[in-house]
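Chapter review: from sequence to fold.
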Amino acid sequence: MTKGTRTKRTIWQQWNLIHAFAQRDLKSKFNATALGWLWSLVVPLTTLGIYTLIFGGLFQMQAPQLASRHEGIAIFAIWLFAGLIIWGFFQNSINAGINGLVSSGGLLQKVYFPAYAPILGAGYAVAIQSFIEVGILLVVLALLMNISWTWLLLVPFFVLLLVFVASLATVLAVWNIYVRDLAHLVGVFLQLLFYATPIIYQISLVPDYFHGIPLRQIMGNLPMAQFITLFRTLVYDLSPGTAAQWLSCLFWALICALLAWWVHRHLGSDLGERI
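The token string follows.
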């Protein structure tokens, strides 16, 4: 198969292969385990409980009021869970994409397939687990009567989020083949980024300026801060969000998509020789 022939197949034409990689990842995680798919809920719910206990209980952090409640009810655990879902999808997709490409090296040396196939397959598997968590969140909010037409906007929101995360995972996974230290650096950076992103605290708690640096503006405009804030706006605040929020998410999605296209075209071919 020539290089020219390889580049003609689109992502949609490779969907069966991507789906196969996703099934492989899901089976490797949950097969032969006692709880099976319940493990996809145990870990995030445990994390939610720990953060709620520490930050909501010990440090008495507050959440915004539920939009549909006139009694001033604010449930920190639900507000926090909304942020952790989006962050968990982002972080787990990045890590899974990097590991997915490296673990497919033996197969890639035997038969050609596009480098993005195992990366997107790993992200697909993570997305399935994340959408289960989103479903639980929406059910709880619906039981609290915190529901509105703004939930319909979750469709374009998740399209932008999937494009952003999948593209960034592709870029980092391919670069990791050339610079093997990158995976370790990404792990450290994600830990720092988690606390720099307003997930467990409201952005209003961040000072406007720190030694002359516009700290609140910088932290509020981080890509994941924009996505998490918009998601909470849609499902918790029941607001459609501002044009600036949507344009920011669209900007990051397009930039990462273009970068992923360039990286795959110039660096993503014949990776079997480097793995």
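Two observations follow directly from the output. Residues 76-103 form the longest helix (28 residues). The chain is about 70% helix and 0% strand.
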